[in-house]
Design brief:
single chain; two-stranded antiparallel ribbon; 15 helices
């Protein structure tokens, strides 16, 4: 309306008349709606307002609901066999019926009752009638079995998958094979099958280590694992497509340097454990661990408002850094943002670093110590701000540890780590574990 001063008197009168007519029309609409809602008022012929019942409301909601782009109902499976059900004779008049159409259908998914196949290979020797030479065929079964094992590659893969992926106890595996296939197998044979599978996959297991060393980002973590009642540790090094686990009695930095070697030059993501300090390259410390400790600090001092305020300011810096890392910035801008966040976080930590009675003192010193390793995710692509991937990598081993208590020998530990690494990697790569394991067992060296 800034141009009203430029209008003439006649134009202003015309504008006022138009607005007056619009106001009168709106008043009429308001009165009509009011009479409908109040039941028509005095002398009104409008229908009284009736509250819709439950069925009417549901129908209105169904009409107003936005249509989905696709249906989320369970899709029908492709049938492997079809059974037709039809009436051959009319129950009323007794006439013979034929033809017809599909009135309805129902699918039933069932497992086959399949006994095991015991294949006996007979080697037939023959003698030549001319030269008298005895001819014996060479038995080549490398595409079916491993070495001189009496179990086929598919059965060995199934046992390894149940023990590793499904985390089923050996005695339960024994009972399941007997119930499903009628197979009698001892607990010792199950252990020997696992050792054979791990031995056959040793080369693939070693190849995983080289993939770890050539990756731009590696997540690392460790957890406990007992061997013959003696405490030890599982070390996990993983990427989005590879998992590599090994067991050692030590928790020192030696395992970090020996595993990563001189070939690794990427970013190491870990928690704040001091063993990872041995790696001299770029590191990213887990913010989830830091935020968890901040939460415990606030819960421990619920009446101290300064603690809650300080923890909130630290988390705010982290949230801003995450927003920046996902934005469209150049590499130089990201480096400047990282320096900005480090400076802000250091200003929060310095006042409490030397304050002996301050509750924030321990975390403030941690922030100062690892300041250069907290915001690597800002200016390094594909680097996460947390170490959740490593936590997920060791979870299957933790569950196995709770079930079995560990292993009884170094051979058992080595078998467990090899199988956990291979099956974990196949799962990350969305491969069928049974098919991948069988292919590995029957592959030519």
């Amino acid at each position: 309306m800034s141009g009203l001063a430029d209008l003439t008197r006649e134009e202003l009168i015309e504008l006022i008349n138009a607005q007056h007519q619009e106001i009168e029309a709106l008043k009429g609409e308001v009165e009509m709606l009011r009479s409908i809602l109040t039941g028509g008022g005095s002398g009104s012929s409008a229908a009284p307002f009736v509250k819709p019942n439950r069925q009417q409301r549901r129908e209105a909601e169904r009409k107003a609901r936005k249509k989905r782009s696709q249906s989320f109902a369970r899709k029908r499976d492709v049938p492997t066999e079809t059974v037709e059900h039809a009436v051959d004779i009319c129950p009323d008049c007794g006439r013979k019926l034929s033809g017809g159409w599909v009135h309805s259908r129902r699918q039933v998914v069932e497992i086959p009752e399949t006994p095991i196949r015991v294949i006996e290979h007979l080697v037939i020797a023959r003698r030549c009638g001319v030269c008298g030479k005895r001819v014996i065929p060479k038995l080549e079964l490398s595409s079916q079995v491993v070495g001189k094992s009496r179990f086929g590659a598919k059965l060995m893969s199934l046992i390894a998958d149940m023990a590793t992926n499904c985390r089923i106890a050996h005695r339960t595996i024994q009972q399941m094979l007997k119930s499903l296939y009628g197979l009698e197998i001892s607990l010792g044979e199950i252990s020997e099958v696992l050792h054979r599978v791990a031995q056959s996959g040793k080369q693939a297991y070693n190849d995983l280590l080289w993939e770890i060393r050539g990756s731009p980002v590696v997540n690392a973590d460790e957890t406990g694992w007992r061997e013959d009642g003696v405490n030890g540790y599982i070390w996990s090094f993983s990427t989005p497509e590879v998992r590599y686990l090994l067991r050692d009695k030590s928790r020192s930095s030696r395992l970090v340097t020996e595993t990563l070697g001189d070939e690794f030059s990427g970013v190491l993501v870990s928690d704040f454990y001091g063993a990872y300090n041995a790696y001299g390259g770029v590191k990213q410390r887990c913010w989830v661990h830091l935020l968890r400790d901040l939460k415990k600090l606030v819960e421990k001092h619920p009446k101290d408002e300064s603690v809650a305020k300080w923890a909130g300011e630290v988390k705010l810096i982290y949230d801003l850094a995450r927003d920046i890392s996902g934005g469209q910035y150049s590499q130089i801008e990201l480096c400047l943002w990282r320096q900005h966040f480090e400076t802000r976080l250091l200003k929060l930590a310095l006042p409490y670093r030397d304050a002996k009675k301050a509750p924030q003192r321990v975390l403030a010193k941690r922030i100062e110590t690892f300041l250069g390793e907290l915001f690597s995710f800002v200016d390094h692509e594909a680097v996460p701000s947390d170490n959740n991937a490593a936590e997920r990598a060791v979870r299957p081993a933790v569950i196995l540890r709770k079930m079995s208590g560990g292993s009884r020998s170094p051979k058992g530990s080595d078998t467990r780590m090899t199988l956990l690494s291979l099956f974990g990697t196949w799962k990350l790569q969305a491969k069928n574990p049974l098919a991948a394991c069988a292919s590995m067992l029957t592959a030519r060296p």
